[in-house]
Amino acid sequence: MAELMRQIGKQIRILRKNRGLTQEQLGEGVQLPQSYIGGIERGEKNISIETLERIIHALKINPGEVLGSIQSAQSEKEKSLDSLKVLLLNRSLNEIEIIIRLSKDVLVAFDAKKIEKTSC
């Protein structure tokens, strides 16, 4: 059980930091002291499902983003993808669609570059 608490705490820390929140700010959002948030993140606190749900709502994530990481440690790629999601959260649908089109163009260029390098 201690390993599960540690993994959940680690994931909460990653998600909190990706959102630019301090432990104190998250604590205010869930009405818990900063020291308690720190204990959760270090895997020292056995939190209730209700507390976990409040944290999930405060971080504006779905439960899978905390619990999904339990199966395997979050990779650098997953951390980067979460950071990208955070950047897009407050953008309009129109802006997100533009970013998707630009991303597709960039990926096409990357793929063309890979093909060019392998054919040389």
UniProtKB/TrEMBL annotation:
Gene Ontology MF annotations: DNA binding; DNA-binding transcription factor activity
Q: What is this protein called?
A: Transcriptional regulator
Its keywords, alphabetically, are: DNA-binding
- Organism expressing this protein natively: Paenibacillus baekrokdamisoli
- Lineage, top ranks: Bacteria, Bacillati, Bacillota, Bacilli, Bacillales
Under the heading InterPro entries, the entry gives: Cro/C1-type_HTH, Lambda_DNA-bd_dom_sf, TransReg_Diox_bact_type
Q: What Gene3D superfamilies does the record point to? A: lambda repressor-like DNA-binding domains (1.10.260.40)
Q: Name one GO cellular component term.
A: cytosol
Give yes or no: UniProt keyword rRNA-binding: no
